[in-house]
Design a protein that fits this description.
- The complex is a heterodimer of chains A (265) and B (287).
- Chain A has 7 helices and 10 strands.
- Chain A has 265 residues and is an alpha/beta fold.
- In chain A, strands 6-7-8-3-9-10 form a 6-stranded mixed beta sheet, with helices on both faces.
- Chain B is mostly helical and 287 residues long.
- Chain B has helices at 28-34, 36-58, 67-79, 82-114, 116-129, 138-145, 149-174, 177-185, 190-201, 203-228, 237-246, 250-281.
- Classes of the chains: A alpha/beta (265), B mainly alpha (287).
Chain lengths: 265, 287
């Protein structure tokens, strides 16, 4: 359609409207949301609570059937959950408690990615070592701290070698110090493996730090407010406004004219 | 109003010390007392002692035999084969009834998990039949299945089925949404999803259901044997108790009861206790 050939997006979300029922009430979580995620993007979806970002991620995961619009992964419509989209959730109970750390990763590889046992074992060992948990491989999840559990979940998701890694506020339940370290580690893993990441958060600093592209959603219902580039630091634009302030205005400000000067989040 | 004081910063160099985690051995007695088995063992011995002393002071072996007389009767009946025979007969029936009950509970739970109507059926049936004591069905069972193992197995299935199905199903339901999503994102087949995610995820509830079902079945069976007596030419433990009472061999009545208790303890500790330790406790799903 376009004259200049845009790169084929890995994930294309097109005019997606998501609704869910609660008794007699019908909630519209997202209204005609569109965006493209390119290969090796660290694409962050940022918005206040009520912007439907978790519902959006569930729809991309194939857990939620859209009311209208569609999700295309490598050009094919997403209809059901599958191992080509690996999840890291916020909840610490995403590891199977009846399996050791190692077995959790190997199980995902054998059942999800259909690897042979030997290959699964090697991959699991490699990725557990990458997140620094090699010596905890034989522990059961309940003996790990919250941060370690999230590291296992990340290792498991990466080991599956998915087309895209979907992270739903993965560090939101961690303490602030651990969260910062986990963000660094995630970026380092990305440097090494260059996976494609779709990361949902409600924290502006986290979005700026983790993402190379940030999608801002407004709330009730979630609609695309803006899409911005980020280079990892809170830089000032030409007009002197910091990126975080700009995002804050876009999400919460009434109009730029009525709010002169930077409101620093 | 107090002013804030300026103070110089303090910066120390610290290093790790090996006293952060230390071995502090406790006395042998303190360790032994931490062992629940030992504590309970001591308690049992104390109870037996009370029993023995009370029965001796009562001096009426027809009403309340001593522990030593009971033990003697027990060893005697074990030696002459009457208790082992009765126990084998009871256990054979029990396993048939328990096994069949578990099988049906599995089918019912599968139906309930697959469809909403199935869930409604399970919930309605359980609400109706779970409060109904199995032994109350025995008269009816005798008319339907006649005077044989069939009737007893029928009441046993009734005793096991509802408790196990109800616990398994509510366990399936209580598996966290996150775990279910994780399982589904692996692309497991429906059967694989049940086996790899729901069953282990619901294992604390399932284990509780198995225990309750076992206890119900055991009680029902002994009661049924008391009422029912000999089936297929050979009496069970209930029958042994009843017969001994008819012959006024009260120590043997006690020995029969003791056997029932012993089996209960054995199964509780050796089967369910070990199963619990190796599964839900190791997994941190039960404190």
């Amino acid at each position: 359609m376009l004259a200049n050939v845009a790169p084929q997006p890995l994930l294309a979300v097109q005019e997606l409207t998501l609704q869910y029922r609660d008794g007699d009430r019908l909630f519209t979580a997202n209204y005609r949301v569109s965006f493209d995620v390119l290969k090796a993007d660290r694409f962050v979806v940022l918005g206040p609570s009520g912007c439907g970002k978790s519902t959006l991620l569930r729809a991309i995961g194939g857990f939620h059937v859209p009311t209208e619009g569609r999700v295309l992964l490598n050009g094919a419509a997403v209809t059901a959950p599958g191992p080509d989209r690996a999840f890291v959730f916020q909840e610490f109970d995403q590891l199977l408690p009846w399996k050791t750390v190692r077995a959790n990763v190997e199980f995902a590889l054998c059942k999800g990615s259909r690897l042979a046992r030997q290959e699964a074992a090697e991959r699991a060992a490699h990725f557990l070592a990458r997140v620094g948990l090699a010596q905890f491989a034989d522990n059961y999840p309940h003996t790990l701290s919250g941060g370690m559990k999230q590291r296992v979940a990340i290792a498991r998701a990466l080991a599956m070698g998915p087309a895209i890694l979907l992270m739903d506020e993965p560090f939101a339940a961690l303490d602030a110090l651990t969260r910062e370290r986990m963000q660094d580690e995630l970026l380092q893993l990305w440097e090494e493996h260059r996976f494609t990441l779709l990361f949902v958060t409600h924290s502006i600093p986290e979005a700026i730090r983790v993402g190379n592209r940030i999608l801002l959603l407004s709330a009730h219902p979630g609609q695309v407010r803006a899409e911005l580039d980020s280079d990892g630091v809170d830089v000032a634009a030409a007009d002197g406004e910091l990126l975080s302030a700009r995002i804050h205005h876009l999400l919460f400000g009434h109009s730029d004219a009525s709010r002169p000067g930077g409101h620093h989040a | 109003m107090p002013e804030l004081q300026q103070r110089p910063p303090r910066i120390n160099t610290v290093q790790a010390h090996d006293f952060a985690v230390q071995q502090v051995p406790r006395s042998r007695w303190a360790k032994a007392w931490d062992n629940a088995g030992l504590r309970k063992g001591v308690l049992v011995v104390a109870l037996l002692l009370v029993w023995e002393l009370y029965a001796r002071s009562l001096g009426n072996p027809l009403l309340f035999p001593t522990f030593s007389a009971t033990a003697a009767a027990w060893f005697g009946s074990v030696a002459d084969g009457s208790i082992p025979g009765a126990a084998v007969s009871t256990l054979a029936l029990l396993f048939q009834g328990y096994g069949l009950g578990l099988l049906l509970a599995g089918v019912l739970t599968a139906l309930a998990s697959a469809t909403r109507l199935g869930a409604d059926i399970l919930e309605t049936l359980t609400a109706m039949f779970n409060p109904l004591p199995s032994i109350a069905l025995l008269p009816l069972a005798l008319i339907w299945f006649g005077l044989g193992d069939g009737s007893i197995i029928f009441v046993l299935v009734h005793a096991v089925l509802w408790a196990v199905a109800l616990n398994t199903f509510s366990g399936f339901r209580s598996v966290s949404v996150t775990l279910k999503r994780v399982g589904r994102s692996y692309g497991l087949s429906p059967a694989g999803f049940v086996w790899h995610i729901l069953v282990p995820g619901a294992f604390p509830s399932i284990l509780a259901g198995l225990k309750i079902g076992w206890a119900f079945a055991w009680r029902t069976l002994i009661a049924a044997e008391l009422v029912f007596g000999v089936s297929s030419g050979r009496g069970g433990l209930g029958w042994y108790i009843y017969q001994s009472k008819n012959q006024l061999q009260i120590p043997n009545v006690f020995a029969g009861l003791l056997t029932v208790i012993l089996f209960g303890l054995l199964v509780e500790h050796l089967v369910f206790g070990v199963l619990e330790k190796r599964t839900v406790r190791r997994w941190g799903m039960l404190q």
